[in-house]
Amino acid sequence: MSDSRARKIAVVADGLLVQRLPQLRNDGYGVMQLPPASLDPDTASAWLEQTAEQIAEYRRNDYQVVLVDDGVWAAGLAGALERLGIEPLPRG
After folding, report:
1. Quick one: which of 40, 37, 29 has its CA closest to 13?
2. Rounded distance, CA 78 to CA 71, Å?
């Protein structure tokens, strides 16, 4: 059985996930969720660091990774990616 998510990942803001999920699935994306806006900063920072590590692994394996965000954690994610030597994600 083949996986319809053809090496494409969307990193999606929590507040946009429900709204955007059907279209992302139709477009063949797997999804990674960003932290909720209400999450405390320390926990959100740890979440973003783990997300950045996963993104780095996807990028090393030639996945297309895009960002679907609402601006809440964009700077934090960009910083976490930068610390790993990964360029900012294109918007999806």
Report:
1. 37
2. 11
Counting other chains too, the contacts that 87-91 makes at CB distance below 8 Å and 24 or more residues apart are 89/11, 89/55, 89/65, 90/66, 91/66, 91/67
Residue in the block written with tokens 């610390």: 83
pLDDT in tens, 37-73: 999 999 999 999 999 999 999 999 999 999 999 999 9
Chain centroid to Cα 78, Å, comes to 11
Contact 29, 63 (CB under 8 A): no
Domains of the chain: 8-83 (3.40.50)
Residue pair 8/30 in contact by the 8 Å Cβ criterion: yes
Q: Residue 92: which pLDDT band, with cuts at 50, 70 and 90?
A: confident
Can you tell me the distance from the alpha carbon of 73 to that of 62, in angstroms, rounded to the nearest whole number? 24
